[in-house]
Amino acid sequence: QVQLVESGGGLVQPGGSLRLSCGASTSIFSPNVMAWYRQAPGKQRAQVAVIIRDGHTNYADSVKGRFTISRDNAKNTVYLQMNSLKYEDTAVYYCRFQRGDMLPSYDYWGQGTQVTVSS
Question: Is 65 left (phi over 0), alpha (psi -120 to 50) or beta?
Fold first, then answer.
């Protein structure tokens, strides 16, 4: 059974940086879409950033200019570089891999990693 494993979360002061990573526990066919979501207490899970296999990216307005998503297609790993972190970035961050343009198709989620921005 495929699991997505996230790492890199933790406690950071406002203005600081963190880098999240997410990879599959076993070998998988290359995902078309890799994305990061986050869910703060009392709020719905929302997409933060997405990257397509061709390298096209898109970001939520709240993180534009501060977060950068990237992927290593050889390793089927996605990263999220988070700079200039704010209190409101505190949330559980989830990665998601989707493959719908070719068979076999799939939609995998990570278990989540906590990011806490606090002084």
Answer: left
Pull the structure tokens for residue 69: 């998503």
User: What is the reported pLDDT for 38?
Assistant: 98
C-alpha to C-alpha distance for 60 and 64, rounded to whole angstroms = 6
Vertex 96: Cα angle to 78 and 66 (nearest 5): 55
Nearest to 2 by CA among 74, 102, 98, 92: 98
- Model confidence at 80: pLDDT above 90: yes
Instruction: For residue 13, give Cα distances in angstroms to 16, 31, 36, 70, 116.
Output: 5, 33, 21, 23, 8
